[in-house]
Amino acid sequence: MTNKIHRYTSEAIDVTFDPKRCIHAAECVRGLPAVFDRNKRPWAQPGNAGADDVSMVVVRCPTGALHFERNDGGEAEPIAGENTITLVKDGPLFVRGNVEIWTASGETVSVETRLALCRCGASANKPFCDNSHLRIEFQDAGGLSANRVVAGEQESLTVTPLRNGPLLLRGSFELLSADRHTNYQGTKAELCRCGGSRNKPFCDGTHRRIGFTDADEGVAANAQPLELPN
């Protein structure tokens, strides 16, 4: 079963939507309600605003569920100048930058600029967030113990979900606390995705003790999206 990507077209700009990546952050609805309206069909009508306005709002989407393609010669979607990972209180990791998702065997499965990655351990769409943190009432303040900087040249960031284990980061990145007051800059780290680490956001090996499994990973296309608008 192939995941269906919806495309909404206009003369100047097209918008694509992946419902399985959407966690209803609603940046699009708040930012441009004339274009993005859940009560209308189709719910996205990019012709209702200027292409520059549409593109500006699309890139606010933290999950990468929305992307755009310009038909009028306008600027393509930008890639953030830095790779940043922001902890969301009681929620996922919001990732921005030049990011590649790898399998444990080193195969590239996704190249993205914006992602929301599960850290509660319960998503049926691993490694992506599907809002399961709300269902299981996952709690974590999204804090970091101290500022830390490790020098490294800017490069693409690779994120590898290790089999039944943490997220392995390789490449220059900045990890931000939920309140954005503390950061950790480095070139490698292992981040908890089982939800049980006592050293969040970092892995402490708890996944082995609690028997965390990512057996459902790779079958995300069979999971039911939260909403599938026309």
Helix and strand topology:
Elements: E1 6-8, E2 13-17, H1 27-31, H2 51-58, E3 66-70, E4 84-87, E5 93-102, E6 108-117, H3 132-135, E7 148-149, E8 157-161, E9 167-176, E10 183-191, H4 206-210
Parallel strand pairs: 4-9, 5-8, 7-10
Antiparallel strand pairs: 1-2, 2-3, 4-5, 5-6, 8-9, 9-10
Q: Overview of this structure, please?
A:
This protein has about 230 residues and is mostly beta strands. The protein has four helices and ten strands, in the order ββααββββαββββα. Strands 4, 5, 6, 7, 8, 9 and 10 form a seven-stranded mixed sheet that branches. It is globular and about 55 Å long. The two termini are about 20 Å apart.
Number of strands: 10
Terminal-residue CA separation: 19 Å
User: Which regions are unreliable across 5 or more consecutive residues at pLDDT < 50?
Assistant: 218-228
Judged by helices, strands and strand pairing, the structural class is mainly beta
Shape type:
globular
The number of helical elements comes to: 4
Roughly how many Å is the radius of gyration? 18 Å
SSE run = EEHHEEEEHEEEEH
Share in helix: under 10%
The proportion of residues in beta strands is: 25-35%
User: What is the mean predicted local confidence, pLDDT?
Assistant: 91
Largest sheet: 7 strands, mixed
